[in-house]
Amino acid sequence: MYLSKVKLSGFKSFVDHTVFDLTHRLNGIVGPNGCGKSNIIDAIRWVMGESSAKQLRGEAMTDVIFSGATSRKASSFASIELVFDNTDGRIGGQWAAFGEISIKRILERTGQSTYYLNGAKCRRKDITDIFLGTGLGARSYAIIEQGMISRIVESKPDELRLVFEEAAGVSKYKEQKRETEIRIEHTRQNLLRLLDVREELSTQLTHLEKQAKKAETYQVLKREERLLQYIALKQQKAEISAEQADLTARLEALEAEFHQAVSFYNELILKHNANKAALTEKSSALSVATETFHAEQREILTLEHKIAAIKTSQARTHEDQAALNASLVQVDAEITELQIALETLTETEGEESDALMVMTDSLFELTEHLESLNGTFDAFLQVAKTLNEEVRQLEREADVAKNSITHFETQQIHGEARIAKLQLELSALEAEDGHSDQLIELQAAMEEKALSVETLQQSLSDAEEQGQTVSEARRDVEARIHQSVRTQSEYEGRLSALTLLQNAVLAQKDGQAPLFESLTIAPEWQKAAEVVLARYLTLSTLENPEGYALAATECTFTEQHLGHYIQSDKQLGALLSHVYVARNELDLALLKADLKMHEWIVMPNGDLYGVDWFIAHIDGAIDGVLERAEEMNELERRLQDLNQLIMQLESDKQALIAQESAVHSHAKEISSALESAKAEQAAIEKAWALLNKEHMHVAENQARITSELAALKEAHEAGQLEIEENRITLESLLMTLEETQLKKSANDAELSAYEAEQKAKQAEAQNMQQSVNDATRQLDNTRFQLKETEKNLARLVKTHSELQQKLQEKTECEVDSDELILLEESLLIHSDNLITVDTEKTELAAEVAALQTAIEQEETLKAAQEKHIESQKEVIQSLMVREAEFKAHQAHIEKDWQDLLETVSIDEQHAMTDEIAALEDADVEPMLKSVQQKLSRLGAVNLVAIEECQQLSQRKQYLDEQDQDLNAALSELEIAIHKIDQETRERFMSTFNAVNQDFSKLFPRLFGGGEAYLELKGEDALSSGVNIIARPPGKKPGTIHLLSGGEKALTAAALVFAIFNLNPAPFCILDEVDAPLDEANVRRLGALLKEMSDRVQFIFITHNKTTMSVAESLIGVTMSEPGVSRLVSVDLAEAEKMAE
Question: What is the model's pTM?
Fold first, then answer.
């Protein structure tokens, strides 16, 4: 099993969909700091169930989602998928049949986290469960982060023990033990609660027994009360009937008298109403006359006001007309004056405008001429500047040429003197050198001896390589023997434990084979079959609880039945015909729609469903019978194969030992000859080196002087050429300078002439511009006066119109004298009408007073009659109320009678006939009160106490039986805990001893010496912590805390690899564990990784080139885009093939 792919999307800096192909055994991940390499480790831990944001270098779990970059938006989710190659079936159980296993986790920004296993949604616990015992997990020893390898060895003894438990594969036993202890605790809690319930039930039962006796007494008294109530109600019904007949006769006589009084009252009401109608009519006429009188008065006042207003208005209108006529005359005069002034200003504005236009044309022509002069002047000025610059540049170049000539002439003099001195030194050195022939002889002897040494080294290397190959082969065989023996012990221990557990579960008494041995079950439904057939798997004779033989029942199963997936020589129809299977929630919902009361549905995980019930599967002692049987058969087969393998390996080991001894002897002989050859070679090389040193010193001086002479001669020749070139350049520059100065003088003369003409024209243009400005201001002033005059004229015209309009309005408002005459005549008519209406009003007031007196007398008589009728009505109502009370009492008695009859059955009525006859004429009220007092003294009575007492007794008996069952289950669970502890202790000690042995071997190999071992801190192997004792070469033994950082890292590596040797995890991730190591230690670590890669897949993050060289595949992580990680993958094996 190994990790083949890691798929990331939206996780930290891996925003795009990224796939890590990890098909090799040694995979290196490289890249600069901060590019996101360690995010790969976080991703693997996260998808394997890590729930702590702190462990993933974040504050909240949503921090793992890509949060955005300069040119990238934040992701809405993070997704990681790990793909494992499981062709070796390392992950067993129901997943052993899958060649590839995929686990996936998706986290959304809402905080919702979802897990998938082979594409199906699952729980986090399902992910962690499949890796139990494999050495993998969110925080297992197989994932070593930066600094974590030191934390492993610096862990407390109890923390280090957890690493050994995971390596020993006992973590799943601890989980089973924890679950069993939880079940034991739950069982004990249930027993305590059950005890409380049983004690409470005993108390309640005692109390209910007393209540039941009281209820029986109550029932006897209640029967007697019903009898007396029956007789009393019968007597009350007769008395009520007599009283009601007398009351009815009195009520009829009073009602006749009441009707006569009401008839007289009605006649009086009719007469009274007639008088009131007449009064209303006369009052209305009086109101009309009064209103008419007031209206005439108001009309007279109105006419008088109108006449007075008209006379006042006529006087005021005449005054306003006179004033308006005077204003119109004055406005007409002002308008005439303004019209004359306007004509004068218009003529003046035309003359000034024509003069301004003439001056503007002249100014425009003068400006154009001045601009032409300015352009010509600027051109001459630019030429002058150019010529000045050329003169200055030529003068500078001439000075430079003069200086160069002087400098090169000085250098030539010094160079000639140095050449003469060097030629003398070279002649002296040639006379000293005489070692050339001797050096040639020593060189030939040295090459011959080097060839001999190289031949011997190659022979020794071949011999050592052969010896190393043989030794590695022997060690490999020994390791395989050791591993096989250890595996054999584990298999034997496991087989022994399984045999004991299977025998304890089966416990066959009749010697016949149990049912499960005759079953062949599809792997997917093995757990479901165990749950359904749990009671029958260990039996040899199948019977159901009713005692019917199951073997005789035949049934045809469909794919929806569990029986379809179970093959057996027995007929299982009665057990399986009512059991259906559902692979998922959708199948479950479809099947439950048509499920009958006696039918079940079972899921692959063992959960059972009925029509209205559900049982979640919990592992019990009987669970796993089929799995254990299959595992036992597999273990027996593997033990046979291991025995044969161990015998063959022992034979191979002896042959390799003999071959190794012969190779070592041959290597010693070659090594001795090589040492002699190397000594002779060293002597020749020493003599050659001394002589060559002297020769080289002379040769170096000769070469230096020769080189310097050549350079000086070349420089002397170049200097002569430079002097000649500079002289020619200087002559040319002087001629050019003279020509340029002549051009400059001519241009300066023309420039002065144009400058004088330009200044004259500028003065003339300024004078003309001043004249134009003065004329413009004068024209603007004239135009302003013209506009103001026009505005004043318009204002006066408007005023004239308004005065004429007002005068017209005053004329229209004059009132004609005829209207005044008509108003005065109308005033006389309304005065006559007022006198007539006043007389009519007086007569109507006298008639109204007479009618009011008659009505008051009638109302007095009506009130007396109403009082008489009301008194009779009260008497009748009191009798009617009493009659209603009698009826209500009668109805109440009748209801009590009916209620009593409902409570007394027909049989009880027949039984009470004689008792009723005997007491029919007796006074039963005292007897009834006596019985009711007895009932009252009983107090509250629980009428269901008798039935509750019976039910409670049955429940207590049931709970007593449950208590016995729970105690039995508790004993079984404690036995299971003891077996788990025993097996855990054995596996842990076996693992500890094996790891200690490998750790003791790997430590000196990585350190090049020294020793190290592990020790338990405590006596109980189930809880003892683990200490590490280490002694690097040249140091005293001590705890791990006394070592340096590099020593701690190597010690931790030795411990981790020792654990891998025992229980290799499918893969191991190392994050820069080589950082604190020097080059030699890195090489030893790389060699160990390469050796172990046959059993463990390594994925390591490194910056070290030596470690990179070990990798079969390199994956580069870059961050060319800020905040976004990308991959660059290199297959080194493929690269080597391409290079070849």
Answer: 0.36
Confidence of residue 846 (pLDDT cuts 50, 70, 90): confident
Select from 1025, 1018, 1023, 1012 the least CA-distant residue to 984. Answer: 1023
Within 10 angstroms of residue 55's Cβ, the number of other Cβ atoms is 14
Count CA within 13 A, CB hemisphere, residue 506: 21
Q: Does the structure show a pLDDT above 90 at 467?
A: no
Nearest 10 degrees: Cα torsion 771, 776, 778, 784:
-170
Q: Which of 565, 605, 523, 626 is nearest to 95 (CA)?
A: 523
d(CA 588, CA 609): 9
- Tracing tokens 């007393």 back to the chain, one arrives at 210
Which range among 103-107, 248-252, 348-352, 570-574 has the greatest average pLDDT? 103-107
Residue 388, annotated as binding a ligand = no
Q: Which of 1059, 1057, 1061, 1066 is nearest to 1085 (CA)?
A: 1057
From 272-281, 869-878, 1034-1043, 1081-1090, the region with the lowest mean pLDDT: 1034-1043
Q: What are the residues whose beta carbons fall under 8 Å from the beta carbon of 460, sequence distance 6 or more? A: 667, 670, 671, 674
Backbone phi and psi for residue 1076, each to the nearest 5 degrees, phi listed first: -85, 5
C-alpha separations of 947 from 206, 943, 951, 960 in Å: 14, 9, 6, 20
Dmax (CA) for the chain in angstroms is 185
Has domain 517-620 been given CATH number 3.30.70? yes
**Cα dihedral value 285, 290, 296, 302, nearest 10:** -130
Domain ranges of the chain: 517-620
d(C-alpha 684, C-alpha 18), whole Å: 62
Q: What is the dihedral of CA 1098, 1099, 1100, 1106, to 10 degrees?
A: 60
Query: Does residue 81 register a pLDDT over 90?
Result: yes
Mean pLDDT for 314-334 is 72
Please indicate if the annotation marks 37 as binding a ligand.
Answer: yes
CA contacts within 13 A on the Cβ side of 70: 5
Q: How far apart are the first and last CA of the chain?
A: 32
Least trusted range by pLDDT, from 131-135, 289-293, 299-303: 131-135
- Residue 271: which pLDDT band, with cuts at 50, 70 and 90? confident
Quick one: what percent of the chain has pLDDT higher than 90? 3
Was 1064 annotated as part of a binding site?
A: no
Please say if the pLDDT value at position 438 is more than 70.
no
Give the alpha-carbon dihedral of 120, 126, 130, 132, to 10 degrees: 170
35 annotated ligand-binding residue: yes
Nearest alpha-carbon partner for 1007 in 1109, 1078, 914, 901: 1078
Please determine, for residue 509, whether its predicted confidence score (pLDDT) is greater than 70. Answer: no
Amino acid at 146: Q
- The answer to the question of whether 39 is labelled as a binding residue is yes
Q: Is 36 annotated as a binding residue?
A: yes
Does residue 1124 contact residue 1111 with C-beta atoms inside 8 Å?
Answer: no
Of the pLDDT bands very low, low, confident and very high (cuts 50, 70, 90), residue 1039 is low
